[in-house]
Amino acid sequence: MTRTSPFRIQPGTQPGAQPRTQPGAQPRSRPSRRAFLAGGLAAGAAGTFLAVPSPAYAEQAHGISWPARRELPAFTRPSHLDALMMAGDTAEDVKLLVTTLQGLVNRERPRIYVVVGKPSEGADTWLKDTHVPYTTFTDPWQLLDRHLHRAKGIVVYDPEVVETVNVATTIGALRGGVIASPELAGKLTAAPYDLPVLDDLRGRFDSNLAATTWAFEHLWPRTSHRVLFGVNPGQSVPIPPDNWKDFEEVAREDRPIRDSSNRAVHDLDLSAFLGGDAVYLRFADSQPADGWGAAVHQVTVRADGTVVADLTAGTDPERAALFDKGGSTLKPQSDTNDAHRFADGTNYFVYRLAVPAGTAKLVVSVDMWNQYLVSASMTAPAVSSDDRRPASQQLRDYAVATQAMPFWLASNDSPEETALMERIFAAVDMGTPYLGWFTDEFNGVRLASRHGVYVLAADFLENASVFGGVRAPIRPQRVPAAPKLANKVYLSFTFSEGDNLQFDQHRMRQLWDHPDRGRVALNWSVSPLLADVAPVMMSHYLTTATAADTLVAGPSGPGYFFPSLWPEKELPKFLAATRSYLDRPGLDVMYALDDRPALTDASAAAYNDNLDLRGIFYNMWFVRSDTTVMDGDLPVSTQLAIGDRAVMRDRILANAEDFDGSAPVFVAVGVPAWDLTPGDIVWVVEQVRAKLGDKVAAVRGDHYFTLLREAKGLDG
């Protein structure tokens, strides 16, 4: 179904009423989407923002069509593309220049297509599927020479403050310019380009937070608020191979423990590491292949028996002691978990422990669990991954084309940055999409969900400003007749990550083209918003699916959010307003994620009342798969999940021990899409059949819930 009104009502208000505000606060000024589209940008911005709203896919001479019922815009249909196959080691400032020019040019009509490096699905795979004529370039300056005349000037960013890359992007998008490093500025302002400097941000800001705050206060009112962009403007400086040469191992857990059952306080005598300016303590994953590394709640430092530091995860003293976050994640205190910092896979974190001069004995007590690897040094590592330099992400073209304000703020470990992120989330309509990613997934999704903002992981999505203009048919997927219910063990396998637009573009296409696809029933989670972002991708998956393939809606419906945290009264409205995105491709099974072990009753009722679902696959970190019937007739099955196919086989067999032949058993299995392929699932099914014979059947997700409903006597 579609929205009956282009306006989204703010929580706690009635149509025509003023939004509630805190005492002494100013009411938010939020023009409706219709008014914003009709009026364009505020005075001072160059050019016209969007075309007048028109029906979805109605053709326009140029510009963007973004009617209220569309979540994301439709671009003009491209007639020819200049396709740049850019080497992955191209200078980052050149990549940034190309990407901002791409968004600027494609806003009027898609003309520039850019591939960086060697995508897993092939550099020209999707390009050929567009059936748009194209000319290939490998030298970025050849493409720049063809199109830089379309830019009105350059905005120079400050390499010392990486967030100025995002600020410069916003200024350039509003004023018709591209962004440039100080080094490129000299070339671009000289002949033959002779581009004027629209703004120079060098020396303007002393921190990333100051830069984003200024952008929010001065640029935000002139940008589009229909979509948010979390775009990382930097990357860590390279870590040299010998960065940890002075570290010595002091503790290790070699057992495969993933459930915190080994939690204990370990007293580590680090006296041997005294003598430097401080002691450096590094936590990593002893078994990086499976991703359940060190989890630390508290570090207590005693110098000669006296406590000199008490570092509890997430507190100001703990953050101040971090020398290098190393990609670690902070999980806040909750009803079921103590706050802890963890580092899985290749991630790590390092504390700098200041010790009083003259200390003779140093003991550090660490409350930790899972697969930890702890090492120490008296010498500081040469480099910290927290040191960053400007870098490019392909999503930037989409932010420029839509004239939004990209930003990058910490969703954890920085209360000041998190507070600004919440201000931005609070400044948009409920139900606004956030494209990009976060410094920390779970904290970021929690923050967004509480404000009614849903996430579309898209930081490595390429050419959205092109694919949004390529038309392709989207029709409901074909569903073969379900098998007759029998007393068997029914398995259903669901590939994860489908909410992730860059996964849909890259890894999913690679898996989809695997020669073993079609040999066993598989569910493929996919973003319903592909219908807007890249119709050709959604169409390809729908039209090339075998009878064994089922597309299911990725977490947690139209986008990724935690339903238990979405404002409860607003969730039914949001689901009803976006239902057409599931109905159009025929997605009647959903894969949902939440940060709690069970779907709440209120969430189940909202899904059941507003989406026509056969059932829900829920989360994917359980050791058992169980089904609960919620809201009277909605089956919700928890999923097993493990990235090792042998362990997956063993867990399925353990779940099948409930089968005695008198009634069917249903087992839902989540498949970590970065780790396993269709060939691995074929192997798992063959292994299980070797044990259980013809009493096991792998079925499509829609058939799984059809049979489960019949077994439980549910209508439909």
Automatic annotation (TrEMBL):
Keywords in alphabetical order: Membrane, Transmembrane, Transmembrane helix
Keyword Mitochondrion assigned: no
Chain ranges of the GxGYxYP putative glycoside hydrolase first N-terminal domain: 92-146
Domain GxGYxYP putative glycoside hydrolase third N-terminal span(s) in chain numbering: 392-467
Region (Disordered): 1-32
Transmembrane helix listed as a keyword: yes
Protein's name in the database: GxGYxY sequence motif-containing protein
Protein species of origin: Actinopolymorpha cephalotaxi
Lineage: Bacteria, Bacillati, Actinomycetota, Actinomycetes, Propionibacteriales
